[in-house]
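Quick illustration, no need to memorize.
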Amino acid sequence: MASLQDICVAAAINILSALAFLVAFAILRLQPFNDRVYFPKWYLKGIRGSPRRSGALVSKIFNLDCRTYLRFLNWMPVALKMPEPELIDHAGLDSAVFIRIYLLGLKIFVPLAVLAFVVLVPVNWTGESLQNIKDLTFSDIDKLSISNIPTGSNRFWAHIGMQYVISFWTCYVLYNEYKIITTMRLHFIASENRRPDQFTSCKSYSYARLFPSISLYPADFLLNDTSALLFLWLFLYLKWTLAFMWDKVIVRNVPPDPDESVSEHVEHFFCVNHPDHYLTHRVVYNANKLAKLVAEKKSLQNWLTYYQNKYERNPEQKPTTKTGFWGLWGTKVDAIDHYTAEMEKLCEAEAAEREQVITDPKAIMSAAFVSFKTRWGAAVCAQTQQSPNPTTWLTEWAPEPRDIYWDNLAIPYVELAIRKLLMAVALFFLTFFFMIPIAIVQSIANIDGIVKVLPFLKSLMKMKVVKSFVQGFLPGIALKIFLIILPIILTTMSKIEGLISLSSLERRTAGKYYLFILVNVFLGSIITGTAFQQLHKFINQSATEIPKTVGVSIPMKATFFITYIMVDGWAGIAAEILRLVPLIMFHLKNTFLVKTEKDREQAMDPGCLYFSISEPRIQLYFILGLVYAAVTPILLPFIIVFFAFAYLVYRHQVLLTFIVIAHLCSCRHRLAQMDKQTWIAPICPSVQVHDDGSMDELRHKH
């Protein structure tokens, strides 16, 4: 069990790690050869080019201007000073609301921490209950928890009152925050440029369905009607996603008809069943082969561009290539003529394949997008059963076109049900059987556990520095390593379930991840850690005393969560801004794979705010803070540091690095699937980034 000294050692290790990451980031971002790693958004927008420096070759790779190193921390005030309206214009409403979650954590826990340290810490410290319990392992830091209060003591009234204060304060802050965010969203909708899909679209909880008479969203109504504001808050922000959708419905599992094609069958069905509202439809084609030809054509075009650029730089020597595998062997030919001829062949093959896809009945899948004249007609169709057979003519709201996950559109109903059942069973076993390795790690990630497994390290474990490292740092880092590959597994499971949109994949993955974190990281770490540490006492006492022992021991598990917060929330957030993996991958790609400027753009990995990973992690910190605020208040300062540090880091990342989630009013879309050049928001005019990596704040002139 970690003592106060162990916590201090762990804090020192994580603070030094975080500082090392920040210093490394501050130095690396100033180097010209790393410019595309730390400013990718500006390159993709086209307003920033590669740094051009005259002089020696070394000055083109490294920044030799000593003055820039004196202001290497100026990214912090610039990231904090950007006004929120400009942040919304620059990064989108989704990103701004996501960053406000960290600010919400500060609003909740800073006042609670002050109050808890004034009221509860003195009450807990003077309780002197742990000393009276025999054979119980505890440390000085556990005296600050509720475990140090004697049974039946009047001191518990302080904790009960504090819990009521925590609950009411949290609800009050949430209410105000929801009101602020709702107002932000209404202003965003009223002020943005109109798009065609806004006037031909709706979703389950969009304004048009709540208030059919205001389908064009008048600004006066949206901004001035307080009752409507509260009504929208109740309905809109208690749901996962808030977005516009088309007045289109996707219909799947269209049954085969011997006398009609799929397209004719769909038209006939909806003309009969929805004669007043049906407008048109478009069937889905299986164009996998065509997609491969398009991808191959892009690759050949890239090679052709590469050799054309090479010839322009040296017109005296025509570039050549070999016709064999990867150009390693075969007949040597003129590279430009060879790839031009290959491009012509592929263009002909692409046109032929496109014609075959359109004319071949076998290429038509049993799915179609159906458009309606009115939103009412689309709503009725999307929410009602269309056939006596519940496995055919399955309808639902069509995803936004860029949001569709095409691979799952034609999965039959029975197979879809089986997939969902299998993934539910797999999630159950993954969630609960994953507790086994976590229990093993938690049981051996302490001095006694390591000595039992590795007896020859007994003398080493007696050293104070080693003991503090093992008790204060090892448990948190071990759990963090176990959770690295988890999002990949959960995303794959969500895809197997048959979801048809990328946003629904993210939401489902986030739900799985949150459930997993709740069961394994929170409950699992408490139960398994307590059981292993107090196993001897459980065996040698009566059954009626076991709940008492568990009740005393669970608050003392806060020391483990403190180490986890420092590893994940301090050093982990600092590692996020360093972007070590994208840095390494970019230089590897730039060295071995990049041939053209387009390749160099594709080698950049701007990243984005991954909802399925970030949101469940934030929820874990809120749970820890709300649970332990009245139990072990010493944990609150560590959570506050996490929220403050993450708020600073992610504002910077959104400003300069992350590509923008599309401006679709909280609908989660992966911009990686879109045209980056088209959908990146305008760069904020209040910040200027120089070639040396430094930033200046500009003021608007009114």
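The first helix runs from residue 4 to 28.
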